[in-house]
Amino acid sequence: MTERAGAPPDHPPDHPPATEEVELVGHIVDSLTLAKVLDLIVDAGADYRMEEFDVGRTSTDQSRARLVLQADDPATLARLMEQLQVHGVNRVASEPAVLVACDHDGVLPAGFYSTTNLPTRVLVGDRWSEVVNAEMDCALVADADGTFRAVPMHRVVVGDHVVVGLGGVRVDAPRRPRGATPFEFMSSDASSEKPKALLVADVARRIRLAKASGARVLAVCGPAVVHTGAAPDVARLVHAGWIDVLFAGNGFATHDIESNVLGTSLGVSIDEGRPTEHGHANHLRVINEIRRSGSIAAAVADGTVRSGVMYECVRHGVPVVLGGSVRDDGPLPDVITDVVEAADAMRRHVQGVGVALMLASTLHAIATGNLLPAGVETYCVDINQAVVTKLADRGSHQALGIVTDVGLFLGQLAGQLGA
Amino acid sequence: MTERAGAPPDHPPDHPPATEEVELVGHIVDSLTLAKVLDLIVDAGADYRMEEFDVGRTSTDQSRARLVLQADDPATLARLMEQLQVHGVNRVASEPAVLVACDHDGVLPAGFYSTTNLPTRVLVGDRWSEVVNAEMDCALVADADGTFRAVPMHRVVVGDHVVVGLGGVRVDAPRRPRGATPFEFMSSDASSEKPKALLVADVARRIRLAKASGARVLAVCGPAVVHTGAAPDVARLVHAGWIDVLFAGNGFATHDIESNVLGTSLGVSIDEGRPTEHGHANHLRVINEIRRSGSIAAAVADGTVRSGVMYECVRHGVPVVLGGSVRDDGPLPDVITDVVEAADAMRRHVQGVGVALMLASTLHAIATGNLLPAGVETYCVDINQAVVTKLADRGSHQALGIVTDVGLFLGQLAGQLGA
Amino acid sequence: MTERAGAPPDHPPDHPPATEEVELVGHIVDSLTLAKVLDLIVDAGADYRMEEFDVGRTSTDQSRARLVLQADDPATLARLMEQLQVHGVNRVASEPAVLVACDHDGVLPAGFYSTTNLPTRVLVGDRWSEVVNAEMDCALVADADGTFRAVPMHRVVVGDHVVVGLGGVRVDAPRRPRGATPFEFMSSDASSEKPKALLVADVARRIRLAKASGARVLAVCGPAVVHTGAAPDVARLVHAGWIDVLFAGNGFATHDIESNVLGTSLGVSIDEGRPTEHGHANHLRVINEIRRSGSIAAAVADGTVRSGVMYECVRHGVPVVLGGSVRDDGPLPDVITDVVEAADAMRRHVQGVGVALMLASTLHAIATGNLLPAGVETYCVDINQAVVTKLADRGSHQALGIVTDVGLFLGQLAGQLGA
Amino acid sequence: MTERAGAPPDHPPDHPPATEEVELVGHIVDSLTLAKVLDLIVDAGADYRMEEFDVGRTSTDQSRARLVLQADDPATLARLMEQLQVHGVNRVASEPAVLVACDHDGVLPAGFYSTTNLPTRVLVGDRWSEVVNAEMDCALVADADGTFRAVPMHRVVVGDHVVVGLGGVRVDAPRRPRGATPFEFMSSDASSEKPKALLVADVARRIRLAKASGARVLAVCGPAVVHTGAAPDVARLVHAGWIDVLFAGNGFATHDIESNVLGTSLGVSIDEGRPTEHGHANHLRVINEIRRSGSIAAAVADGTVRSGVMYECVRHGVPVVLGGSVRDDGPLPDVITDVVEAADAMRRHVQGVGVALMLASTLHAIATGNLLPAGVETYCVDINQAVVTKLADRGSHQALGIVTDVGLFLGQLAGQLGA
Questions:
Q1: C34 lies in the same domain as C165
Q2: Distance (Å) from the alpha carbon of D352 to chain C's nearest alpha carbon
Q3: In terms of domains, do D4 and D106 share one?
Q4: Chain B touched by C119 (CB under 8 Å)
Q5: D37 and D69 housed in the same domain
Q6: Does B228 touch chain A (CB under 8 A)?
Q7: Touching chains, D (3+ CB pairs < 8 A)
Q8: A6 and D59 in contact by Cβ < 8 A?
Q9: Between the N and C ends of chain B, which has fewer C-beta atoms within 10 Å?
Q10: What is the rounded distance in angstroms from the CA atom of residue C410 to the CA atom of residue A121?
Q11: pLDDT digit string, tens, across residues C154-176
């Protein structure tokens, strides 16, 4: 079976699939080019068959791949080919380019070839002609002498002959001079710019799948979950059975209890929205009362705590590990102040976890990521891209980063899961 | 009338209000201390009467303020007093401190005094005694020799005598050595950590108020509005009449049209979630088709564009100014490519605007902020705190920053406004 | 004595100082306007005398301040007046505006009045005339009917009559509708955009002053100090006696030792630049060897550790507190794994500290900030503005944020201090 | 020749190279695993020969690679093997694991095997035994029943038998379930955490190489270059001939001229550190004076401008393109206000550019990136990781991101280049 989620359609399409034979030459393995190409194919809902693959024997040799692409329809295939060409993928078939004349100034013929910034050649008759300049997102205009220029849309004029379609155009694969340098290529898309409703739906779907398969769901919560107003959403998720184990620190647990014990009026709720963990006597008073009760469970039993995430965890037998940190006030009596013991307690609870949600947490999320086996699906949700990248980079090969506002994300997630 | 929103209660409370006379001494004007104190009073739903105010005549003199605080009930007043003491506010009344013995190790008596990190004195009998160390969030424990120590909660033991309540405790106001240095105090709360549902509700309320008063609502949209999946929400807001004028650039308009003209399948929507404005031939093809139609309005008329934000603006006569930038592809025929003319067009449309929403836009938001009169309520929504701070800092005295995910924010806002 | 650094000149200037009487009316205390105005005066090297100050008795009353400004020369005073007018400060003197005709299209007369975005009036003859629109950074052009318009520079034409100088122009103070809302005004300048060499020099100067006064200097170091290549700079500062106590965690100490024990070649140094604390066996091997030695001091004594920050601290008797965290590998034997004990150890070492440097640390920096008395000058250095703001917001009234690259900052600081 | 910088040593090492035959099985192409493995080999200064490569024919087939690694010495090879094992690379040689007993509690034997979080087997005698749990950065301890457990260092006790060395241990390659989901793996290292002196040296080296080869160097400058105090460094680079062409906007040019025309005293320099482009009459006055002169070159000629970046560009004939934007004040007469014309002007100047430096610029940097051919080495320097990622993601395949403070970076770069 495949590791890719691109499932086959349930019913065969009415029309035969569209196919195209393509090739790619260069340092395509170590430059990530081939991996990116295969990604794009599957992301487009298409598929491939590797017909030939000559891998460079040493780090100085080029590699060469020949693939047959297959998509459900010609339009999908054409869109895919345009995306692939940016990475140096060329059609194997060799037919001359089609030229069409512009009929309006500043407007291109339909189906115009859109350039990459790679070195490019055009087949006219039986001769390959170099494009004299390389610029992205332009059209290829034929000059009188048979050469071609990359020309931006606004500069074409009536009568310019422009390449239409992908036929007869070839590009060189991009080169990435890497080697032993202190640099790395940065490749993450600015992932705050994603369709967020889709992301939420996908996380909900994966949680459902994990639960259906008997796996457990772990939530790791930072204080911002409370500050952004999302603690009631987490409480609903615990109440409805979606969360099986919870890791957090003294701050999250205290803020959760404080907002439920003291915070009912608008003024107070707003005030709690401010992340001033210190200088707030309320915070200390709540810790002091739980210390007086002896534990959070005792405080639930004696009626001190009557709602919230901690309350629901106690009520529903969801195990909680509160790991201490040097910045803790109090702390709450449930906090494991020895960090080695705290990590050991976390170790005991990660068994059987299939999905881990890291919710606006840095310290406890990194600690958790260190303990998880490679197969656990991990979602790191934070508004700060640097935090998400840092978490997603740490060891766990399954970590997916979501740059969003945990305060709005959790409300939607709880809604999607019917919690 | 007041400029503060702390409206009087509609009906008088059943009990007499709680009051307290307090004073504050030091460089309280230029250090922002007094402003912060007055803020906290009103934020707490309380009020004040300035009984006496001696302002330092020169930059080297101290000032002194004496106020009477008034709150609806003693609990509110007590909470407020704890917050104010952090800023050096002391009760004028001079009564001795109340000491209570601890009855559990590591647990403080109810109502314990919670320390600030300011120099502190305690009145015992008729003698003021210095606290020997200053540390926040501790209790004050009496030593055998009559001095006091700030002791963290976990260190108190049975029999320790601890100050309870605010009586008999005084602190010095904080000093802020400013002067001609290259530094500035950073004072913004990490505002991504706010209760987000409340923020959305408040923006909705203010939009309703503005519309009810006959003012116009301006939206300034960046491309991330489309990438995060929120363009349909903006289209609903335009359709329902909540947005009266729209400023954007070539990127926003093109992405909006592209997602409506080409993007119906999941694959394509996802793909649009990526902020690759270049290297995407779809993007260029859409621009080319609008150029062929001659304008966005013409493309709506000839059926090329059938939905989306641009479509709704054309249909509902909402004026749009698309200001050009050097990074534009195409651009669309509606883009004003001369930036001086574009700014002049924006000038013409800001008349009568009462609320401006800056939605994941930097360039056009700054340009707009430069043109708005001081009275316009401006909300800057972006996931990047640095962008929000930058926008909010620019001139416009009314700019409020909201660090959140515009993709989720706009869905909730449209919902709140019933769009 | 003053708390402001605006020292008087050592020798009297040759010319008499320039003075101006100004006033400011509105909600100028709670809106921070007055504080900002006093700041600007001192920042400009000028001074003030408060002649009259009527503070609003309640939160609904306006206040009114009348000040005499004094600067060394008229040019400084004129620049200051332009800055102050943005905040609603007007001259008390009432003289008619001076109008000068433009002699080039798109060019203003020298000394033109530059607008704010506040409601504005102009005195012509003996009549105050309203400006019909409010826009920043424009000129005031007289219309034929005696009214004035704010006109951008590029729109003036030859013959337009433009207000020159500040005489005869008045603005209303800005209003800030605050009250009990979930919003806060964000007021921090985007402080990554500061002249960095000046900041470094100023921190160096303050460290020198603190040391000269007998105060101790505390450094709180995060792992990024090592990753960015700045650990040798910290080692030099310790060696030269500039740092008296050091707080950090297992990560910083391990990376420091690892880079000194194992890291000599380019390949290894680069590799250490990557923040992968896990998945790196080297990291664990170093911890294991120190555990075998028994402590860092023992590892220095037995020759296992021969350079670096930890080495210099051992050699120079600089106390180090390593506070544990749940994400720690190993940990090193010196790490205090009980976080309550770790915080207590930190408490013991903050006595006498006059300057605290928080260097790319979040967890330990917040923990330290919680323990420091209000008087300690604290510098929070981090590349992430959100981290700096968070640290600077925490209680400590003296915290100054510097958004910069700690890797380059520490090299310059060590250079400035001759370390 | 190779595209990789891992050049062979000039002289043969004294000892024979160390070699190891390894293999890797799984979805290693599309999961980026193979590319990462080849990267690590070259980054370590080692090399490889691909002995066998069976690529999966379809997206559901596994691939299998067999390589011979070669390093200069066994220590380098051993370190490399540890890094590779994290990605599922196993030795082909099959020898039993070596077990060594612990002789101190909490201390591992030298050379202990450090675990990954992948499924792992150990060869004991002739039987492969599964490791019962997977956790990173642990030791493998043999249980009495012949199974193995991953145990953290602090939990081993005297007498525990621990695997030493890589012999007899195999791991499964990581799986990355991708497919058509809205997520992307985030793979950029948190690149603010790099050894910064090395990065500066490398950029300087590449600029020298480019100049030596006859290529031109382009600088794209944002206003923060001036605000952070780095404009004099850019001026020195222009003066010394290191910069051949400069792109910027009205803001950069105006701030540069303003700081040179008006800014000599400390007070003024500090003031310029604040990014308030508006509300500052100085800014407008400077623009007005250049408009009066007619152009920047004319203002240099008539003595209005006597130093700074713009001055040096005029003096040394370095072409400057100032592209307009809707937020511009004035603008300066040299600003090309039509953005399509501005982009065309930039197009004309990118010919022959070999290195592009994007310096704290977003708008103009993106615009430039759109125009550059794929071969241009591009360095994006900004303090904001999101900006750097965004720039580096845009099309240009050569863009390298450097998250640092441009104010300190440029000073060091100018120093390195002897400017």
A1: no
A2: 32
A3: no
A4: yes
A5: yes
A6: yes
A7: A, B, C
A8: yes
A9: N
A10: 51
A11: 999 999 999 999 899 999 887 75
CATH assignment of the domain containing A296: 3.40.50.10690
Whether residue B191 is contained in a domain is answered as no
Q: How many domains does chain D have?
A: 3
Same domain assignment for residues A56 and A167: no
Residue D290 structure tokens: 């250049």
CA distance D8 to chain A (A): 11
**In this complex, do D193 and C108 lie within 8 Å of one another by their Cβ atoms?**
no
What is D148-198 written as a DSSP string?
A: EEEE-GGG--TT-EEEESSTTEEEPPP----SS-S--------TTSS-HHH
Separation of alpha carbons D277 and C210, rounded Å: 36
CA distance A262 to chain D (A): 38
Q: Please tell me which of the candidates D45, D224, D403 has its beta carbon nearest to residue C193.
A: D224
Distance from the Cα of A131 to chain C's closest Cα (Å) equals: 39
- Residue B180 scores a pLDDT above 60: no
From residue B82, give the alpha-carbon distance in Å to each of A281, A396, B357, D78.
Answer: 7, 45, 36, 60
Q: Which domain holds residue C170?
A: 94-178
Residue C299, classified by CB atoms within 10 Å of its CB into exposed (0-12), middle (13-18) or buried (19+), is buried
For residues B83 and B132, state if they share a domain. Answer: no
Q: Enumerate residues 6+ apart whose C-beta is below 8 A from C216.
A: C210, C244, C245, C352, C353, C354
Same structural domain, A359 and A385 = yes
D25–chain A Cβ distance below 8 A for any pair: no
Q: Which residue from C minimizes the CA distance to B6? A: C179
Residues of A in contact with C384 (CB under 8 A): 384, 386
Q: Is residue C400 part of a domain?
A: yes
Query: Listing from the earlier edge strand, what are the strands of the sheet with C216-221?
Result: C320-322, C245-248, C216-221, C353-359, C377-382, C399-403
Q: Are residues A73 and A103 in the same domain?
A: no
Q: Is B100 helix (H, G, I), strand (E, B) or coil?
A: strand
Kindly list the partner chains of chain C, i.e. chains with 3 or more CB atom pairs below 8 Å: A, B, D
Among chain D residues, CA nearest to C81: D281
**C129, β-bridge pairs:** C122
Same domain, C68 and C98: no
Residues of chain C neighbouring D411 (CB-CB closer than 8 A): 197
Please check whether residue D19 touches A, CB under 8 A.
no
Which of C31, C66, C91 is the last residue before a domain boundary? C91
In a domain, D270, yes or no: yes
| CATH code (residue A72) | 3.30.70.2690
Give the mutation candidate from B72, B162, B192 for the A interface (greatest A CB count, under 10 A): B192
Domain stops at, among D140, D173, D206: D173
Per DSSP, A155 falls in state G
Written as six digits, the tokens of B216 are 């116009």
The pTM is what? 0.85
Residue A266 CB: number of other CB atoms within 10 A? 13
pLDDT of res. B40: 83
Per-residue pLDDT for chain D (419 aa), expressed as one digit of tens each?
233 333 444 445 567 789 999 999 988 876 677 877 887 888 788 888 988 888 877 877 888 999 999 999 988 898 888 888 888 899 998 899 999 999 999 999 999 999 988 899 999 988 999 999 988 889 999 998 889 999 999 999 999 999 999 899 999 887 754 443 444 433 443 356 667 788 888 899 999 999 999 999 999 999 999 988 899 999 999 999 999 999 999 999 999 999 888 763 322 343 433 333 334 677 888 999 999 999 999 999 999 999 999 999 999 999 999 999 999 989 999 999 999 999 999 999 999 999 999 999 989 998 998 888 887 888 989 888 777 777 766 554 567 788 889 988 999 999 999 98
Beta bridge partners of B130: B121
Q: Please check whether residue C4 touches B, CB under 8 A.
A: yes
Neighbours of chain B (3+ CB pairs under 8 A): A, C, D
Chain D closest-CA separation from residue A11 CA (Å): 18
Give me the residues of B, 41-70, that contact A with CB < 8 A.
43-45
CB contact under 8 A, B404 and A407: yes
C-alpha dihedral (C103, C106, C110, C112), degrees to nearest 10: 120
